[in-house]
Predict the structure.
Amino acid sequence: MNERYPMVPAAFVIIFCSGTLKEALAAGILTIVLTVAASVLHELMCKAGVPEWSRIPSLLIGETALSYAAGRIAYSYVGGLTFDRGRMLVWLILGVLMACSFLWGKMHTDIDAVLFPMAVVYGLWMAAGLLRELLAYGEIFGRTLLEGGYLAKAFQSPIIGFLTAGVILGIANAVTNETSEERGSLLSILPAAALAVPIQLFSKWQPVNWILGILLVGVLVLSVRNRLNYSWTGKRMRGLPIELISTGLIYMVLTVVK
């Protein structure tokens, strides 16, 4: 069964770019643009008979460059957003994942069929950005709406990012009658773990911490996946959505251990 929208790239960027309404607005629009660009470029190269040895690197390089350029331009012109090293890596990885979705994933070839579920994801993404910003800062677009000790910066953490991505994809799958059975969750989870290492095992050796952190997350996700095979999670939550939520819970446990 063909996927109607690129779930893995969408999940990856939601993890990091749903902390505020402003960033959700910008990142969501850019993700839709990148989806259309990847779809059009891939279809044009296939119709033109471009050989596979040329089509693969061309789409990978082109989509990655476009993703980086779009992210840098948008973050430079939208006030309140910073295109730091972390965000640069997010948009570079997003370009690679987007190209891979069309090169090797079972993506739907009809762009109209792709845009509808992406629009649903975008709407949920904005709602999540609004809620996370409100609960973390009590603000929306810089306007203070809530004040009190119940506001927590923890709503900006990767833990909530993973949980948010899983819930958004699960709801979007239910609305669009989509499923995620291919289980490409590690393609979004492992790059996310590389950018947000959940635990520091050794204080002096940061490269070792980085490698062990990624391996630890990967092993724990695979272990949980085996358990989920015998669990009832609902058809629309099965696969990537529930594994993103599981990763958020894994991060929560590792943060407590740390």
The chain has a mean pLDDT of 86. Residues 203 and 209 are 8 Å apart (CA to CA). The chain has nine helices and two strands.
